[in-house]
Amino acid sequence: MTSRRLRILTCSVSLALLVPLTACDSTAMIPPTTPQAAPTTTASAATSSQMAGPDVVGVAEKVRPATVLVQNLAIASRDPSQSIGPGLVPRGVGTGFIYDPAGFIVTNHHVVEGAQRLRVVLPPPDNRQFDARLLGSDAQTDLAVMQVQGDGLPIVPLGSSDSLKVGDWVVAIGNALGLPGGPTVTAGVVSALGREVQEPPGPSGAPGPTLYSLIQTDAAINPGNSGGPLVNLRSEVVGVNTIGAAEANTIGFAISIDSAKPIIDQLRQNGRVARGYLGISVVSVNEALRGALGLQQATGVVIRDVAPGGPAAAAGLRPGDVIIRIGETPVEDRADLEYALSTQYKPGETVPVTVVRDGREQTVQVRLGDRPTAPQR
């Protein structure tokens, strides 16, 4: 999927909305039935439970209060008609969610990018507004953490995405299209797991980062949903809604919460993400590369380039080496390597890197550097 087919789900503050409506005669959907003997109580209860479906109402009641509108504000222009407050104009709106009673909020990097001021608005009937302090933002994972000060703040707990299965019910909540009246609620299923998608270019025109370990869902997510929670039926956050497919229906992506948690913790504590740096560019092994390199299986990552003077070069790694393990972590693709360097190993640590070279496995010790802003590994 190319970046042209994706849209980041931040919503412009200037909207034109056309909503076509259709009517449906529900009685026409009921087929004729033949009288039958009454089912047993147990069978009747089971059938009733199956027909009831997921309790989306209960999930919405628990999660909506903690799902906030995030306003990205800038200093007012010379046109006073654009101002929404003393000296402020809106640049865009998105969504966030409060996950800690101390007022910590998760959202997307692209929601807060370039903001001169951030305002958080709780949904009705609370409607409280806060100036938020940005604690940290990470473009590479498209995550950011803010904090507001307030009493009795509602929260939504973080769950686990590792236990998700394709077909599980999920609920997406966010400020779709920036519509007034509070967050929009949509429901669907997990359509796929472990997706890898490149975000579209940002305002500068530079290529967006590649996001890994994404959850694909058919729960409708739209502009304005960026940074909102994707939750399971236990009302726990399992993903952070981030990208929608502009040229397809009901294809959206959320950052899995288990891959996001280490990033969230680092942003909250340090304001930045310290990533281990190898100084290489890589490509995931596929069937074509497996045959060309004579590998036994189509897993691992092939080193394409080694930065001169970098940690990998100092350790003797070279183009064509296939990384299959870092430390005790198997590396099946780029996402595994990225996750390990972002969450398990820090700059300054010496870690064993196992590679396949000329058909043989060998392990080298690499002292990791501190990754620069550029998305090299």
Q: Could you characterize what this model shows?
A:
- It is a single chain.
- The longest helix has 14 residues, at 257-270.
- By secondary structure, this protein is α+β, with helices and mostly antiparallel strands.
- The strands form four sheets. A six-stranded antiparallel beta barrel has the order 8-9-10-13-12-11.
- The chain has seven helices and 21 strands.
- The chain folds into two domains: 1-11 and 54-273, Thrombin, subunit H (Beta Barrel), CATH 2.40.10.120; 276-370, PDZ domain (Pdz3 Domain, Roll), CATH 2.30.42.
- Strand 6 (129-138) and strand 7 (143-147) form a beta hairpin.
- Give the SSE string: EHHEEEHEEEEEEEEEHEEHEHEEHEEE
Reading off the top of the CATH hierarchy, the class of the largest domain is best stated as: Mainly Beta
| Uncertain runs | 1-5, 12-50
Name the shape in a single word. globular
Report the sheet with the most strands, covering strand number, pairing sense and barrel closure. Answer: 6 strands, antiparallel, barrel
What is the number of helical segments per DSSP (H or I, 4+ residues)?
Answer: 7
Spatial order of the strands in the main sheet? 8-9-10-13-12-11
Number of strands: 21
Structural class: alpha+beta
Helix coverage percent of residues?
A: 10-25%
- The gyration radius over C-alpha positions equals 24 Å
The first-to-last residue Cα distance is 23 Å
Query: Which CATH architecture of the largest domain?
Result: Beta Barrel
Bin the strand percentage. Answer: 35-45%
- The tally of domains stands at 2
CATH overall fold name of the largest domain: Thrombin, subunit H
